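Design a sequence for this backbone.
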């Protein structure tokens, strides 16, 4: 079954890595459906029914975004608030419509992995910093998987560094 990739990037035109990932994903429309939230909703008025129907149509879902102020870009939080509703995504009479779906994050970050450690600049690991996502998906009974995190873009913005990530990312998705 195809994988839904929900991309949340407010400045895709200036992206190097997320834009490159999308270019590669779009080469395989039989395997991946790319859904760019900022492109679909430039006014941030989310079509809740459409999003829920989209989610119901896939068993594997990736949320792809740059690490943004130690979280995701703001449209993802709004999407969670508006789409993952009581009675649809959770609650005793909801049917847990996202339940059992394989869900993972794909995160690009400018800092290297050492920066995200107890002894590093930011004092916390990415596992710790992504716990709110993990808890959100557990709450709605989704099958949350470990995230794909590509570190160090600020330290190494070369084309080779970006290209190195492409096959790693596709391999991650295919093994989900």
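Sequence:
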């Amino acid at each position: 079954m195809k994988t839904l990739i929900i991309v949340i990037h407010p400045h895709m035109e200036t992206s190097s890595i997320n834009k490159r990932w999308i270019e590669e994903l779009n080469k395989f429309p039989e395997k991946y459906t790319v859904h760019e939230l900022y492109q679909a909703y430039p006014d941030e008025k989310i079509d809740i029914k459409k999003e829920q129907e989209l989610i119901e149509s896939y068993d594997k879902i990736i949320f792809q975004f740059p690490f943004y102020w130690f979280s995701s870009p703001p449209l993802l939080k709004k999407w969670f608030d508006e789409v993952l509703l009581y009675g649809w995504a959770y609650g005793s009479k909801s049917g847990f419509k996202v339940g059992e779906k394989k869900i993972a994050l794909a995160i690009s970050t400018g800092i290297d992995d050492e920066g995200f450690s107890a002894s590093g600049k930011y004092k916390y690991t990415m596992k710790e910093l992504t716990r709110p996502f993990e808890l959100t998906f557990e709450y709605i009974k989704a099958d949350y998987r470990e995230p794909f995190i590509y570190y160090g873009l600020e330290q190494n913005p070369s084309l080779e560094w970006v290209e190195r990530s492409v096959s790693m990312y596709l391999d991650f998705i295919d093994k989900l």
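The helical segments are 17-25, 37-40, 48-56, 74-83, 126-129, 131-139, 159-175.
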